[in-house]
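agent> call fold_tool(seq_1)
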Amino acid sequence: MTTQEREQYQRDVERSIVKKFRKEIWRKFTKAINEYDLIRDGDKIAVCISGGKDSMLMAKLFQEIQKHGQKDFEVVFLVMDPGYNEENHKRIVDNAERLGVPLEIFHSQIFEIVAKEDMDSPCYLCARMRRGYLYHHAKELGCNKIALGHHFDDVIETILMGMLYGAQIQTMMPKLHSSNFAGMELIRPLYLIREEDIIRWMNYNRLQFIQCACRFTEKCATQDENEKDSKREEIKILIRELRKKSPYIEKNIFKSVENINLSTIIAYKKDGVKHHFLDTYDEPKE
């Protein structure tokens, strides 16, 4: 691809975001930014890129909102290489160059460290370590926020997983203060965007991204392959089946954690303290 062809392709990709996918992607991105107050003037945000479809779309969305938005902020497009094989590392770099996303790449030994641990599921440890490294490096670069590419489907799957496998009602929050890195926040700007629309955008622009690129599951290196036998995959299948019965299922799951009536809850926790309905049951009503 010549320089001229690459520049034209980048313009076409950017136009697809604000034109063809305006309703499904651009408006939902800006709605999340405004509704959850994710970006403020003076922010310096590390846009964390794993190399998958979600984070690469997020990078392009940040570029667009810098051009079209009204906030005064900086971004760094941050890639942590935890030990990718050569093919996956090259695909991340090539996609970023093709899309016009300037990368800040740093390396870690996470895959090697996790590989030494004797555990049935290394994914939880890997995810926690990744986030810690990202916070640390972002802070070194002068950032006050990291942006992750979790989308609407991740949110509703988390809600159901908590209920069915964790015996709790909780959700993936649109933003969080870091408990280990003072002054740092995590934001999720794709919070309202459906995964199916991200896939449509990807296919429309003839893009191929890595998905699961860890040393334990390198067979998942392409977008077309799914994780097998995971709790999240079971939840994905369950939601697809429920959707056949009602087109409102996903929205209702999402809204369920916005419409909690504490008067009808047996118990809940706040800041680590458990509150039970019997604590105030006999108190006189005003």
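agent> call fold_tool(seq_2)
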Amino acid sequence: MTPSKTSRLLNVLREFLRFLKPRTLYVRSLLILILPLIFVQLVSTWVFFNNHWETVASTLTRGIVGELALVLDAFSSDPSGFDPLQVAYTEHLGIQLTFFPDQIINIDAVGERQIGFFASWLARDLESLRRPFLVDTESFETQVVVQIQLVEGVIQAVIPRQRIFSNTTWAFVFWVIGSALLLFAVTSLFLRSQIRPIVRLADGAQRLGRGETLENDLKYEGAVEIRRAAQAFNAMRANLYKQIRERTDMLSGVSHDLRTPLTRMRLQLSMMGENDDIKDIMGDVLEMEAMIEAYLTFARTEKVEAVTKVNLTQLLQSITEKWQRNDYQLNAHIENTPTLLIRENSFRRAIDNLISNAHRHATTTWITAGKRRNHILIIVDDDGNGIPEAMRDKVFRPFFRVEGSRNKHTGGSGLGLTIARDVIRAHGGAIFLGDSPYGGLRVTISLPA
């Protein structure tokens, strides 16, 4: 086999083993505890079967073979004394002896000298009699039949099974299996109680990452390390909410304070008549008011909004119809999408920002939405000038505006993409920029389904 084929085979084997490897902590922990137990039980069973069971079985079968040897010796010495011997064996040993004169054991028709899985134990010791024989352990549930060929015929012995096979063997097997199942059940319950706080912590972190509001702290339960992780999570959650609240309040307060003097300036300018200087100043005032309104919009996205179940298809269709009513060239292809837990107003504002951003720099916009595997994709394309690849990371910064076609003269305060990204991230999704097949910018939103 060539090295390349060997390498490919190893890669396939590695991928197969990786596929078989359990993914959850519960299953992995269970295997760590159960696999050594299974190994110990198998070793114990192997030792038992190779020592205890073999010793007991050999002792029992040697006793039976010895008794049959006495029957053969007595029959060879005096065939007429077989009847009293038959009665004695039946009464005292439980062995039913029968003599079939002039009969021959048809071993070839049977194919083997022993019938049944356990017959080999008895057949091994019957070899010492140096006579043809047949052992049958399957025809009867409680008895074993042994036929021995003599010159005069066949002696058949029907022996109780308990005289050959020890019942303690099955008791040991049942004990091994029962103890393993009992330990598996106890271990499973214990692991579930220990892993439950970890799962709850992971769910809380995932919900917090999606932007959901966690009303209550996580319970402190489980091992000491898990309790410490829950305490750290609760402290992080409290600090995060505090920082968001303080930043939102500060931004809202500053924006509101700035609106009052700007309103007075606009009123005073409107009363001063019209000339070129006043028009320039009025334009600057209006631009500042627009920027402040954008700041307030940005602050509103930081406020905690209740999460509700929303039909995403209907939401996107309503946004599309609103823009189409304003005679904007917006083409939509929206497939059926599942109902999601989202902040409806924030999500609507994010999609509106993307369409508005495309509207300012393009003549036509295309919006496509649908479910792909375990994600929902929302794609907004336009036929504008696009954004240079080197600046696609910078445009998500607050108040950043691209030079050229996307400057302040075309409108916007540099917060549209920032707001959209924050909203999408708060819902556990991601947003990407790329080249549109229509020549402009493509914005791709990926949400967990």
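agent> summarizing second result for user.
Residues 287 and 351 are 23 Å apart (CA to CA). The two ends are 46 Å apart (CA to CA).
agent> awaiting next instruction.
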